[in-house]
Amino acid sequence: MTFKPLIMSLMTMLCSLFGCTAQTIGFRSVEAEEFGRIIADTTQAVTRLDVRTAAEYAEGHIANAVNIDVLDGNFESRATGKLPKDKTVAVYCRSGKRSKKAAAILVRNGYSVVELNSGYMGWTKAGMPTDR
C-alpha cells in the first residue's frame, strides 16, 4: 500500500493554507466595497496605486491612481521614490495577484498598505466607478 496520494493531498492542503496567510502578512486585503470606502474617506491620507502595465492602466483605472508597473525591474525604487510614507497605499492590479506582490514589497519598505483582493476586475464587477 502506498501513502503517496495521501501525502500529496496533505502537502497541497498545507501549502494552500500557509501560502495564503503568508501572502498577506503586513497588509490588509479587502474586497471592492471596503476598498472604495477606504479610498473615499477624506479623513485618511491615502495614495491609490495601480500596479498594472501602462497599457492596462490606459484601458481604465480607479480615479486618481498612480501607475507603477510591479513587473518593471525598477518597481521598488520607483515606488519608494514616488510614494509618500505618511499615507496609506491602496494598491490594486487586474485580479489581485500582482497587487499582493507589490503590497509585500511596500510593507517591507515601511509603508502601510491596503490591497484590493479581487483587483480591478472585481472592482468593475462590483459596479464601482472608473476613469477611462
From TrEMBL:
Domain annotation Rhodanese: ranges: 49-132
Residues of the signal peptide: 1-21
Keywords (A to Z) from UniProt: Signal
TM annotation in the entry: none
InterPro entries for this protein: GlpE_sulfurtransferase, Rhodanese-like_dom, Rhodanese-like_dom_sf
CDD domains in the record: RHOD
PANTHER family according to UniProt: FAD-DEPENDENT OXIDOREDUCTASE, PYRIDINE NUCLEOTIDE-DISULPHIDE OXIDOREDUCTASE
Protein name, as recorded: Rhodanese-like domain-containing protein
Source species of the chain: Xylanibacter rodentium
Species classification: Bacteria, Pseudomonadati, Bacteroidota, Bacteroidia, Bacteroidales
